[in-house]
Fold:
Amino acid sequence: MTDINTAYYTAAQPGRNDYWRKMAAPRFRARTVLKLLQTFPWKSLVDLGCGDGSLLLEIRRAHPGARLAGVDLAVPQLDINKQRQPDIAWRAADLNADAPIAGGADFDVVIASEIIEHLTDPARFLRGAAGWATPARGRLILSTQSGRVGETERRVGHRRHFTVEEMTDLLRAAGWTPRRVWNCGFPFHDASKRVANWFPDAAMDRFSARPYGPFQNAACALLRGLFRFNSDRRGAQLFAVADRGDRTGVRGGMGPLPGDRARPPGAVRRVDPAPDPGGFRGKTLPGRRLRHRPQQLLAPGRRRRRRGRL
Structure:
């Protein structure tokens, strides 16, 4: 990580834990990860860049029998985590390394939530993340950001953001098989970031440097409600799901995600606007306007029966 990351995440920030527990964006990411974990069988999980372990604590409550581990560079934070949750394995490691520490490569699930945008070498990180996963069946669940890097994001160590295409290419180059890569969060996730970047000093002071009071709690509650109306097809939030094995599930792979359909080898599922049945949207039939839904059009050669006639 950069010096900015080290300085920010090792310094005492009284409001940081409140941010992770109450703010709409991290709550939305946690819900998404928990939903994805319900879609396939797994027994072990590691969270890379775990921070204070908030996400792992939620995963523990939902999956009490799972073997969990958290990895981070901030040793003081890991010591606190060990005292709070001793049944989770907390490990200090450099996430820019190509390979994990000894004994690391045996997890069914690797979580990388809001970490890759902080690193100097994203490709190297993804190669290292593959080393934490069980060969031929491990699954990666990743979240990061798209769009430009704003001032508040620079202050917490963001180096770059990613498009769907860039992330897909990075995953493939690192040895992962992308299953689904998509954007979401428009408009309220994007708008909340824009407002924070308009007033970076106030945003950092009120929502990171001090414990949350009535104003911060009210703002968080309002945003959590608005986030329920966000798009799941566009926005600055980016998610990715990728496998170590091939997407057909050979050699013990995790199997398809809900909604997957047969695709050519190497194809990636992306959330796009709903398809146009029949390809009729925006078109007209020769000599007349299209007044009927595509599925109501008669097959060629058939005669329409008019009302009142045989």
